[in-house]
Amino acid sequence: MNLRRSPRSLTYDLAWASVRLGVAFLPAILFPSWLTWTVTVLLVLGVVFLIVAAFMYSYVAACPGCGGTVQGLSQKIDCVGHSCGHCKRFVEVERGRLVLTPPDRASDAPSFGVLLRGSPGELPAICCTCGAPSTRTQGFAVAGVSLDIPHCDNHEPSARLRKAAGRVRLEVASLRFAQALGERDGLDIVGNDPYSDAPARVPWLSALGGMALTGLGFVIVRQELPSKELLAGLAASAGAFVLMHFVVGAGFVVRRRLVRN
Ligand SMILES: [Zn+2]
Ligand SMILES: [Zn+2]
After folding, report:
1. Integer distance in angstroms from the first to the last C-alpha of the chain?
2. Alpha carbons 174 and 249: distance in angstroms, whole number
3. How far apart are the C-alpha atoms of 255 and 17, rounded to whole Å?
4. pLDDT tens-place string over residues 192-217
5. Under-50 pLDDT residues of the chain
6. CA 207–ligand 2 middle distance (angstroms)
7. Which residues pair with 148 in a beta bridge?
8. 66-83: per-residue pLDDT in tens?
9. Which has the closest alpha carbon to 134: 150, 156, 154?
10. Residue 153 Cα, ligand 1 centroid: separation in angstroms?
11. In angstroms, what is the span from residue 74 Cα to ligand 1's centroid?
12. Where are the domains of the chain?
């Protein structure tokens, strides 16, 4: 269960980052202006973040639960909340080794996720922060799902309700709470590793939308319009954002197929 650096993971992420860099520079190269350069700089900053993450999370290790490979690990942080993609158990890094997360783990942030199907109704009477019996609840709501989240007298609820990759997920600090809810309702648990927000499908619509907006830029510069260069840059900038959405989504999907070691 020792961590090792995965050259394949790092190579893929750097290639992915280069494609994103290409998209980032599109508006500035096609229609140079202060507007497009501002957009390009913003997009490049996002890619720099990805490159840093690629190096930081380029470690893999065998899952102590099932032996399958767990991706996206780091030697610098404990990775509490990462889950094995094969057996779905939560794992964490302890002194350079990957271990199963103990069932009573209470993380200092909402790290353990449960993918909801609709509204689960009354939640298990367990403090979502520490895993002790709960004494009260606090209301949370997002995207049409509202929940009364249990907590105890000693803790504020350490929970987050959010929409990611088209599903509503509840994230809590107590593994005991997450596991109790998952088992009771047959819900999938989900980790907080860098690839957990990956969409299930390639967002082809964004590819089409991005190309259409960029094409619109070329149509605009040929018209007799005041400040047409700026307008064309605006269309190409919007196109780059939409195209970036495609590259990010497709990159996640391809990564899942390609990087398995
Ligand atoms: Zn496993
Ligand atoms: Zn508590």
Report:
1. 14
2. 30
3. 12
4. 877 777 777 899 999 999 999 999 99
5. 261
6. 46
7. 139
8. 999 998 899 888 999 999
9. 150
10. 35
11. 17
12. 103-193
